[in-house]
Amino acid sequence: MPSTSTEDRILRTVDAQTSPAQPDTVRPGTIVLTLAGNGSMNPGDVQEAMQSAVESGRLEHTEEGRLRVADGVEVPKPGKTRVSG
Asked: What are the beta bridge partners of residue 68?
């Protein structure tokens, strides 16, 4: 299971890629490329964290297979740790 900080980073990246100036959804491959393309993360870890975020209800898949932050989910700010419970 990916760490909370990895999942939070995925959420921040999806949020940045779906800002008001961007489309409201993003291809999963774009997230992998953004986070793993520069070598800072392993592509498998990114994919695992995306799946975990979907399973936990933090991200949603569209019918077209794209991603968006789920309604009502607060995107964590960099450097802040999400508290469960």
From this structure: 60
